[in-house]
Amino acid sequence: MKALEWLGDSLRILDQTKLPVTTIYNDVTTYEEVAEAIESMVVRGAPAIGAAAAYGYALGAIQYTGTRVGFQDYMNTVKERLTKTRPTAVNLFWALRRMEDRLRDLYEVEDLDEIRKALVVEAESIAEDDRRVCHLIGEQGNPIVPEEANILTHCNAGALATVEYGTALGVIRAAHQMGKNIHVYADETRPFLQGARLTTFELMKDNISVTLIADNMAGYLMQQGKIDLVIVGADRIAANGDTANKIGTYSVAVLAHAHGIPFYIAAPTSTIDLKVPSGQEIPIEERNPQELRELFGVQTAPLDVPVYNPAFDVTPAKYITGIITEKGIVSPPFSVNLLKIMVRS
Ligand code: MRU
Known about the structure:
Layout: E1 4-6, E2 11-14, E3 25-28, H1 31-39, H2 46-63, H3 68-83, H4 90-105, H5 112-140, E4 148-153, H6 168-177, E5 181-187, H7 194-205, E6 210-213, H8 218-223, E7 229-232, E8 236-238, E9 243-246, H9 249-258, E10 263-266, E11 272-273, H10 290-293, E12 294-295, E13 298-299, E14 312-315, E15 322-325, E16 328-330, H11 334-343
Helix pairs in contact: 1-2, 2-3, 2-4, 2-5, 4-5, 5-6
Bound molecules: 5-S-methyl-1-O-phosphono-5-thio-D-ribulose (MRU).
């Protein structure tokens, strides 16, 4: 099951808001449709958002009917629209910058069709890099997974959140493929239920043993010695190692620390943002209050109750045991070692 697939002149997007009940694909042909799919979380997860935005940028170029003269201004509008979809996952900005850099390289090319083709190739290469990188994250994470382990994960950092294979779930998949005896506890992940709807669904499809728990059960399981390891994904990692991920990750990290349980982040280096010194500077998205007042259309709170709905939180670096990237595992001190991994080829 693929979150995204390029069909030559359109992008097939799996509607993750409908999973696991129904499997619906939308074939989109405009950058506006891609932007709306990202905003509404039809496609979600940091690397998948990045790849979708890159394809959206290429679709914008394909849609354009004007002359070469107005093309650059038009593409700036396309980029701006895609940039405004979700603020936290840095992969979105990273992918759009890569697309924009590619366009800049083509400034002497007059033929718009040649430019369109080059932008599609660049988007395909972003997607292909993500596939490769996720498999490498899986391999690099191998040393931290014991032969037998109960692993807790939060949200969905799986194939659905990437182009293929996943980051946190990539490490889990690789361990399973190596014959390790692992069991996963998946936090349901209120309010959007990525853990309940997506992580359990993905793991069950791959025959990886999984148990669903409500978010507020994690501490009790840790207290009972039922969790050996925590692995989660990331939306943005600051230069000092502070990491933004799905709301609730911070609570899990503090709990893991209190119980002496290793807490790992798995993420591609494209999620590391050295321009942001610490977690305090990471923009945190606030989503629609309705996500808390109702559950998939069914009212669960007074319709006019005031709501606070941050979609992400920041786990301070001091609670993070290590960051598993495609280039290796980064250990503390993160301010030194993240810099080193970013310059390593
Ligand atoms: O709001 P979402 O579903 O896009 O949030 C997703 C997460 O927080 C993931 O853990 C993160 O993007 C990593 S995905 C490999």
